[in-house]
Amino acid sequence: MPARRPDSRRDGPAARTRSRPDALDRSIVALALPALGALVAEPLFVLVDSAVVGRLGTAPLAGLALAGTVLTTVVGLCVFLAYTTTASVARSVGAGERDRAMRLGVDGLWLAAGLGAVLAVVLGLAAPWLATALGAPADVVPHAVAYLRWSAPGLPGMLVVLAATGVLRGMLDTRTPLVVAASGAVLNAVLSVTLVLGLGMGVAGSGLATAVAQVLMGAALAAVVVRGARAADVRLVPTRSGVLGGVRSGLPLLLRTLSLRAALLLAAWVAAGLGTVALAGHQVVMAVWGLLAFGLDALAIAAQALVGQGLGAGDVGRTRAVLRRTLAWGTAAGAAAGVAVAATAWWVGPLFSADDDVRRAVALSLVVVAVGLPVAGWVFVLDGVLIGAGDGRYLAAVGFVTLAVYAPAALAVRAWADGGAAGLAWSWVAFAGVFMLARAVTTGLRARGTAWMVTGAP
After folding, report:
1. With CB atoms 3.0 to 4.6 Å apart as the test, which of 15, 166, 368, 447 could cross-link to 86 if both were Cys?
2. Rounded CA gap, 297 and 329, in Å?
């Protein structure tokens, strides 16, 4: 079914009946809560590994921190595998083409597995160079290399998890990924303790535990997709057009992710230039920001799936209603989170540092974050809406526009702001204020129009 522009005739009484706020709210919550659980389960891998490896000493823990950053960056850049499959599968399901949806899902799994295998080989071979290039001290390098090489075989599983999760989200199933993510987190904890402490494998045991858990998670989620494909009488071999189509549709979202990563790196660079206190405080504030982003992103996931199915079905009225309701939820959730962060800002620092200056820097910066959270909730939801609509090219283009807007503000803070607490607060004014407002404007202007509302199957 060819894609088409919005048809105002579909935005009639029937569409409004189907899109009652209470019914939509139930749909949003039913998708967002399990998605939130799955998102929160993933950071548990890092926390458990850090707790276990921390018992081995400072050098192993530092090696894990460095290698873990590399691994999460690689996987984070491949998040387009989840986003593209969510959008394409949801649109196909909405258009009544379930067999096409499963065909796209199968091709997405093959693309993820192939890309994961290539990245696993590259990461394994480049591990010593990466550890050295990132400035690891001599006593840390062996531990970083060991973790990277033992965890690298799990990359195909990690990327298959992304693609399969995207397929299931597109079919409005966020519960299965939650169950698999929670089970994987428990398995990883058991394996990590057994291999690192029980069998004395050190950091390598932590890497192996991660690899085994992720491969099994990928196999479990892929099995669900395979069952759906067989039920729809879809062949399990990859198609050239499907895999290449996944690459083409994923490239804009990869570019979008690169612009976001660049902004995060720029924020860290600014903090580093403001001194040790600012950099230490930045690490704490960024950890809080990341946790909040996971929570707000659950609403974006719900928006992706619901918008994709609405546009696939050609139901412009429902799509607009989803936009309105998820924006209301996102802004309200951001405001509620902002109140909570502002109320606890002065108590967060002592949990991470005994240095009074660091505590002060954390508290002031968290107040800045709190003020900007309603805007962040708005931005994350609009991102999800446009991703669900398959509007990746626009997001890629404005991603670099917003980075260009943010960069001068960040550079000004590094050049002229005082170090310490005040400097870090200004750095977060630039990031949580200027950068997020730029994203809010660019995505908000797009959402007001109809160019993104192309209906029908992808």
Report:
1. 166
2. 12
3-state SS, 137-160, equals CCCCHHHHHHHHHHHHHHHHHHHH
Confidence of residue 365 (pLDDT cuts 50, 70, 90): very high
Rounded Cα gap, residues 18 and 110, in angstroms: 36
Which residues in 246-255 are b (16+ Cβ under 10 Å) and which e? beebbebbbb
CB 198 within 8 A of CB 128: no
The answer to whether 34 and 177 have CB atoms below 8 angstroms apart is: yes
Q: In terms of Cα–Cα distance, which of 246, 27, 25 is closest to 115?
A: 246
pLDDT at residue 336 in the model: 95
3 state SS of 51: helix
At a CB cut-off of 8 Å and minimum separation 6, what does 182 contact? 37, 38, 41
In 365-379, which positions are buried (b, 16+ CB within 10 angstroms) versus exposed (e)? bbbbbbbbbbbbbbb
- Nearest CA to 333 among 301, 299, 303, 366? 299
CA 25 to chain centre: 23
What single DSSP character describes residue 198? I
In 3-state terms, the chain is what percent helix, strand and coil (to 5)?
85, 0, 15
Asked whether the beta carbons of 419 and 339 are under 8 A apart, the reply is: no
DSSP code of 313?
A: T
The neighbour count for residue 96, using CB atoms within 10 Å, is: 13
Range of lowest pLDDT (42-51, 52-61, 411-420) = 42-51
User: Both tokens of residue 450?
Assistant: 């109809």
End-to-end CA distance of the chain: 8
Q: How far apart are CA 304 and CA 172, in angstroms?
A: 10
Q: How many contiguous H segments (helices) and E segments (strands) does the chain have?
A: 16, 0
Average the pLDDT over each of 74-78, 125-129, 423-427 and give the range with the smallest value. 74-78
Q: State the DSSP H helix or E strand holding residue 406, giving kind and residue range, or none if neither.
A: helix 392-416
Give me the phi and psi of 455, to 5 degrees please: -95, 165
